[in-house]
Every structure is written in C-alpha cells, then in structure tokens.
Amino acid sequence: MKTIIATFAFALTSLVVTAQKRLVAEVYPSAVMMHESDEVVLTRNSGYSTANAEVYLVKDDKAKVMAFYHKKHKRSEKILPCENGDQYLEVQTQQNDDHGLLSAGIVISSNPYKKTDYEDIGGFDELRELVKLGYHSQEEFDKVYDRYKYLNHAFFNSTSEEDKTEGGLLTVQEQLYKKYLEKVLPVDMAAQLEAMVVSIEKLTEERKYEEAHTLTGKLQAEMDKAATGFHQTDTWATWMEYFATLEKNAFKTMVIIHKPISQWHMDDAIVLQN
C-alpha cells in the first residue's frame, strides 16, 4: 500500500515569497502561515505532524483553493481523497529503501477539529444565559447564532500563549474568549480563578493528583459562582464585540504544502496510510 508522509512545520508570518523555492507548490495568494508549534494540528479525523512541510490558512473556501491548485498543477498532480474530506494533491514521488514510495504534495482541508456536532465555541452559551435571564429574546439570539454559527467550523491560528488547563498553545479563538471572559468578570474574581489554575498545574506536575482533583472541584464551584455574578448585568454588547473580532481572524481553509522529499528529515516524519 502506498504511504503518504503528511507532515508540516509552523511559523507566524504572512505570505512568504521565498517559500516558493523550498516547497513543492506555490503558496496560495493571501494565505497566512500558521504560528510555530511543536504540536500536531488536527482536522476532523486526521493529524499532521510538524516536520517537512508548512501549513497556511486561507479566507477563501475549499472549492476555490482546489481550483487554484488544479490549474497550477493539472499536468503533474494526482488527486487522492482522504477519508475525512481532505483532498491530497500529489506533486512528487520518490522511492525510499526504508519508507517505500514517498509522496509529497498539497493537503487541502475545510474540516477543522470539533469534538461533536453540538459543541459551540465559547461565547454562545453566555448569550443563551442572557436570554434565560430575560435581558434578550430568543429571536435576538437566533439571529446572532445564524450570523456567526459558521465560526464553529472555522480554522484559527495558534498563538504563543500556553493553555494552562489543557496544555499546548491557545488558538486565537481561545485567547479572545479568555480575554472577553475576563472583561465581564470582576477583576479580583478573574485573578483568583487564574491563580487556582496555576496551582492545579503545579500540583499535577508534582504528581499530587488527589490535591489537584480537589482544587479542580473548587475551581468549578468558583466558576459557577462567578457566572452567577457577572450575569447579573447585561454583557450582550461585549460578546457582540467578541464575535465581530473573532470573525476577522477566522479562516475557511487550511493548506499544507510539503517540502521537496530531498529536504525531508525522515526521523521527524509521520507516515500515514492512504
């Protein structure tokens, strides 16, 4: 069975013209390169490692991006659909004694990782709570949800800020949600919750799991208490600002472009069956 080594590296910048010489395909116009990270980036059912390729985010939809690369590589490409809806356009192949037939090309995805069909990004639940409290109507919420629900299926760049609860780095969406949540929380309450998160992280590193579990329960109780407190006022306008800002940072498509196989570091590669 042919194997495809699907890998990529991150770096924070806008379109880099010099990338054309070190990749097997040109960078899509107006694409934004993703922030540097050591983590695997997930689409709906697949993960791609951080070596031997670069990953870009694009505002245009998948069909338009596909058309661009089909036109540019129609004589040399081979299209290999992936089981999760991604498209793989093969540009280069090379036989390798240890890894078999290697394949380099372009992965085009419009399937950002999302745990369930019912899971919304942060912000929508806060608006629902304001409806329950009588500050706004269900019709108002439905209008906002119809306007912004597509953001549940958008890609967001990663940031350099560490996620102190889940590990890894926060995405732009997660960072913005944290920022706006702090805006509607009392300042002292926000600081208290942050301190508790840091303590839980330290206890976990020290393998004091029982203490960490107990403190996690207290953290949840304090968060519930905080929710009751900040929902006593109408924070709708703040969350509207959040969604407007989030929309400016949302991308419809992710494009992974491999480096030429001759430049690959095989020890860092992840081999995926196609």
Separate helix tally: 7
The secondary-structure element order is EEEEEHEEEHHEEHHHHEE
**DSSP E strands, number:** 12
Shape designation: globular
Structural class: alpha+beta
The helical percent reads 25-40%
Distance between the termini: 8 Å
| Main pleated-sheet profile | 8 strands, mixed
Please indicate the percent range of residues in DSSP E strands (runs of 2 or more). Answer: 15-25%
Instruction: Round the mean pLDDT to the nearest integer and report it.
Output: 78
Radius of gyration: 22 Å
Q: List the uncertain runs.
A: 1-20, 270-274
Question: Topology of this protein?
Answer:
Blueprint: E1 3-5, E2 7-9, E3 32-33, E4 41-42, E5 47-58, H1 62-73, E6 78-81, E7 87-96, E8 100-109, H2 124-132, H3 138-148, E9 158-162, E10 169-171, H4 172-184, H5 187-205, H6 209-230, H7 236-248, E11 253-258, E12 271-273
Parallel strand pairs: 2-5
Antiparallel strand pairs: 1-12, 3-5, 4-5, 5-11, 6-7, 7-8, 8-11, 9-10
Helix pairs in contact: 4-7, 5-6
Keywords: Signal
Signal peptide: 1-19
What does this 3D model show about the protein?
Helix content is 36%, strand content 23%. With 274 residues, it is an alpha+beta fold. Strands 2, 3, 4, 5, 6, 7, 8 and 11 form an eight-stranded mixed sheet that branches. β6 (78-81) and β7 (87-96) form a beta hairpin. α4 runs antiparallel to α7 (236-248). The longest helix has 22 residues, at 209-230. The N and C termini lie close together (8 Å). Mean pLDDT is 78; it is low at 1-20 and 270-274.
